[in-house]
Amino acid sequence: MFLQREDELRLLNNDYQLPYATFEFIYGAKNSGKTALLNEFTKDKKTLFISNFEMINTHFFTSLANIISNYFDQKDCKFTFSNFKEVLEFLSKHEIEKKLVIIFDDFQNIQKIDKNALSELLSFWKKNLKNRNIQLIVSSSLLFNENLQKNIDKFVSNIIKLKYLDFSALKEFFPEINKLDLLYIYSILGTSTTNLKYYNTKKNFSENIYNLFLSSNAYLFDYGIRLLKNELSDIGAYASILHAISLGNTKIGDIAQFLDVKSTYLSRYMQKLLDMMIVSKNVPLGEDIRKTKYGRYEIEDNTLKFWFSFIYPNFAKLKASNVEDVTKLIEDEFISKIVFKSYKKCIKEFILKNKDSTFGYKPQTIGSWWDNSNSIDLIAYDNLNITYVQILWEDKDMAKISYGKLKASSEKYNSSLEKNFLIITKETFFNII
């Protein structure tokens, strides 16, 4: 099912209509919908889709060349290819008349085997491919380093960075399911259609958790390890970091303390997780991401967040078929650990899409804010007004208590603008979103 990528699809189609060659980069974490977008875009177009998978290095580039050869109605190549440059040279020898979309999927895998692959592609684009009747698209689940990214920026027409779909996508995927159950599904599967298609609407939520995660032959039983193994070698360190974050250790110092290591030891691991778009680093409104001491890390994929919260630390029990203890743990902690965070994320998504109607003015700036002892879910302001927002899972009675706390916290983010306060409760979620 193709959902909510209309803007990206329009951008790709507009470039396709241009009378000259174009070059796009699409970034997105694993299961964020890159392939679904590309399949939707190319369903009515001539397309050379060059995909790759795990293979011994000596055969890897020959397999890419064979895809090209097969597309142009030829048999497999009769000689071997040892690097990406040779593949590009082979591609350039073929005649292209009608507009052709050429896609290099999962380019990070090519770059992993040939470290010069991206540089070779950019060079080849400049001297050859940009003069062909093509639309070149590169997809990657890894952000490239700053120097390579600067080179990419010089040549490409567009860079599309795919985030996971909003919660509202689930209402299209499961139109008959009520909002609370949708929130529960969102909390364990996010909006990845790759994972959502395994949810059985004929079974209740608990049965789905067992069938998806807890059974030793479940599709998502080893999800976290499987995802990390695609790109990383030191799985233990990355898994431990993600487990620490899933437990609420979102500051670099807290993660280091939980793992009993120095913060400096974590630097390269955190950067790799950021590059893979597995985690994001969030900073308070108005802070510089490079300088702030208040940065917090968050796991982007809801399935990964759930997996590292409940499956990873109980892997041995589940392997031994001791499902009852883990089931009880999920029953006790699912709402507080997982659902409330998902609920807050949904509310923020809704507000960001409906800023004007929510605040009664058009905010110039909006974001979350915190310091060592205070936290405000959202602050929005224009030249005249500032609004402080707190999001509660509780009902209206609790809102009265939280109003006072919000006013006190707002004094720490002082402003001369006209102050407004907004408390959002679970009732808003059920009635509006």
Structure description:
- The protein is an alpha/beta fold and 433 residues long.
- It has 21 helices and eleven strands.
- The strands form three sheets. The protein has a five-stranded parallel sheet, with helices on both faces.
- Helix 20 links the parallel strand 10 and strand 11.
Question: Can you give me a brief rundown of this structure?
Answer:
The protein is of the alpha/beta class and about 425 residues long. It has helices at about 5-15, 35-40, 55-70, 85-90, 105-115, 115-125, 145-155, 170-175, 180-190, 195, 205-215, 225-230, 235-245, 250-260, 265-275, 300-310, 315-320, 325-355, 355-360, 395-410, 425-430; strands at about 20-30, 45-50, 100-105, 135-140, 160, 280, 295-300, 365-370, 375-380, 385-390, 420-425.
Characteristic terms for this protein:
alpha/beta, 11 strands, Rossmann fold, 5-stranded parallel beta sheet, 21 helices, 3 domains, Arc Repressor Mutant, subunit A, 433 residues, 50% helix, 4-stranded mixed beta sheet
